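Exercise 3.2. Students should predict the tertiary structure of the chain below and write it as structure tokens, then compare their answer with the key that follows.

Predict this chain's 3D structure.
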Amino acid sequence: FARTAATRPRLRLLVVGDGAERPALEARVTSLGLRDRVRFLGAVANVRDVYPAFDLLVQGSHYEAFGLVLLEAMACGCLVIATRVGGVPEVIEDGVTGCLVPPGDPDRLAAALATALDRPEHGRELARAARLRVSERFTLSRVVDRRESLYREVHGETAGPRTSAARG
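Answer key:
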């Protein structure tokens, strides 16, 4: 954020969540002279209430098992920039439904953020594609159907109608 904010005086950052690292992050923000441009929201009961305030969401994780936060943001129409870790590439297709950068590379993360800010129409296109991807692949009913198909495949069953009656 600091690298990108240096040339964009209107840029603001909202940090959502809480944890043991918060005091260190707040101290870092202060030491960089960005206290008036960064707001720590802490834990938010319903994060979906916050997404409409975002122009985009950046998640610079070093580890991420799946990326539920990314799906939520995508479903709400946010452009997402994230690190290519764990299950994130399953959620985001780089350049199609968002932007992926290598983990631990703040220069690439800053460049992706700058590009998104400089090309807002492209970002809106990615966000629209992301929203569609979520509705096509990640709704609860689709996830349940895929999981059921997987279980049937593992057990050597054909995908037939569900039965609720016990056989004995």
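Discussion points: The helical segments are 2-5, 22-31, 68-75, 88-91, 106-118, 120-137, 140-154. Residues 55 and 78 are 6 Å apart (CA to CA).
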